[in-house]
Amino acid sequence: MRVPLGWLRDYVAIDLTPEQLAERLTLLGMEVKGIERWGADWRNVVVGELLTVEKHPRADRLNLTTVRIGDEILSIVCGATNIAPGQRVPVALPGAVLPSDRRIERTEKMGIVSNGMLCSGDELRLTTDADGILILPEQTPIGRSLVDLYGDDVLDVDVKPNRGDALSLLGLAREVAAATGAPVRPPVVEFVESGRPTSERLAVEIAETGLCSRFVGRWVSGVRIAPSPDLVQMRLQAAGMRPVSNVVDASNYVMLELGKTTHTFDAAAVRGGRIVVRLAREGERLETLDHVERTLSAETLVIADPDGVIGIAGVMGGAASEVTDATTDVVIESAIF
After folding, report:
1. Are 47 and 143 in contact (CB under 8 A)?
2. Distant-in-sequence contacts of 223-228, Cβ < 8 A, 24+ apart
3. What is the pLDDT of residue 266?
4. Pairs from 157-161 (Cβ < 8 Å, separation ≥ 24)
5. Distance between CA 269 and CA 290 in Å, rounded?
6. 58 pLDDT exceeds 90?
7. Residues 65, 22: contact at Cβ < 8 Å?
8. What is the mean pLDDT of residues 205-225?
9. Helix/strand/coil (H/E/C) assignment for every residue in 238-290
10. Residue (of 259, 257, 252, 266) closest to 220 by Cα position
11. Residue pair 109/62 in contact by the 8 Å Cβ criterion
């Protein structure tokens, strides 16, 4: 399990160095197999402030920018369309090395010298946005190294199978609290319900109570699928998960935070608003989220609606009920299998 310490500190105060914490966890039976400095490959990348953005005189798809990085002002050619004066952005200086050993040098673009590169979140592996430059919060200090601001120490913790209670950020926070005496700070969850209750929209039947002791569903309306906030994407990336969309990322974030897996269905694909937890019929087929057509056996526990299987319980959802850009209503599953 990859544990970003900056995220772990949300739940417990840590006064130990990463190496000292690793030793404490290992003595508690949570062997730390390694410590990674996430962001160490953002070499010579700093925060800059865009001063001007003008069209390149010889290329319609390029912009000429001036960027302030402390006392120095650089001219950089950039092809992004989401930039404007006043923004804080990551700047790879000449000589910088980005992930995948990509090296940035002073170059000439259509007759104009570019003294570095403005970076997207994808180029830095901070977010998955490759279409535009990563826009940093307006209070981000100019000239600071990006790794100092967004880098993190990540522990590779080997949580044993008998310690499922520790297979989460909050679970490990409890272990740290037990070892150090620091209080645990569980996340505070507050939300306001409105509209029709879930019970009027969704019915759940558990046909195999021996294999599923509890199944809870929630109906969320008015969803707009979009990228997650940058901080959420950064934390997921550091923890080893690739961001997908706000709905899917929220499910993965909760799993990493609390150790509780959930699954999201496009509510429009749950026929009749009815879910049945049952065994598959021999030979039933399901295209799973990885777009593999699978033939199910009669021993496979599935999530189904009146039309057929929409997911393999506790394993993977079906492609037909996947959350997409067209999704407006979502069913959230939380179950014990």
Report:
1. yes
2. 223/247, 223/327, 223/328, 223/329, 223/330, 224/328, 225/323, 225/324, 225/325, 225/326, 225/327, 227/127, 227/128, 227/129
3. 97
4. 157/1, 157/2, 157/3, 157/25, 157/30, 157/31, 157/32, 157/33, 158/1, 158/30, 158/31, 158/32, 158/33, 159/1, 159/30, 160/29
5. 17
6. no
7. no
8. 96
9. HCCCCCCCHHHHHHHHHHHHHCCCCEEEEHHHCHHHEEEEEECCCCCEEEECC
10. 266
11. yes
pLDDT of 117-167, one tens digit each?
A: 999 999 999 998 888 999 999 999 999 999 999 999 999 999 999 999 999
What the block records as the tokens of 209 is 């109570």
pLDDT tens figures, 59-116: 888 999 999 998 899 999 999 999 999 999 999 999 998 988 889 999 888 788 899 9
Cα–chain center distance at 171 = 19
Does pLDDT of 279 surpass 90? yes
Tell me: pLDDT of 189 over 90: no
Whose structure tokens read 């190294």?
145
The angle at the Cα of 211, spanning 205 to 217, to the nearest 5 degrees, equals: 40
Query: Does residue 244 contact residue 250 with C-beta atoms inside 8 Å?
Result: no
Tokens coding 300: 């496979």
* Average model confidence (pLDDT) across the chain: 94
Average pLDDT over residues 307-318: 95
Q: What are phi and psi of 223, to 5 degrees?
A: -80, 140
List b or e across 208-245, with b for residues whose CB sees 16 or more CB atoms inside 10 angstroms: eeebbeebebebbeebebebbebebbbbbbbbebebbb
